[in-house]
Specification:
Elements (H helix, E strand, L loop, with lengths): L5 H35 L2 E3 L6 E3 L6 E3 L6 E3 L7
Antiparallel strand pairs: 1-2, 3-4
Amino acid sequence: MIPVSLTNLLILGMFAALFLLGGLWLLAVWHERRQERRARRKVVLCRICGHIYDNPELKRISACPSCGSLNEVTQPRPI
């Protein structure tokens, strides 16, 4: 059996908790970015009036509800 002092045991426990929280945080960030990419596939930016609208059918060319111009699917740049 390996002798471990209480101080070393607490430090190991804190490092384990820190790594666990860091891993969970990275997983949450990855999941959020993945959802944002999926949502951006359905968004179209009008090249004439700049209106951003949804394209739920994922058509290649869609009409802007604001000005009526036809637009190709191009996602807006992330902020």
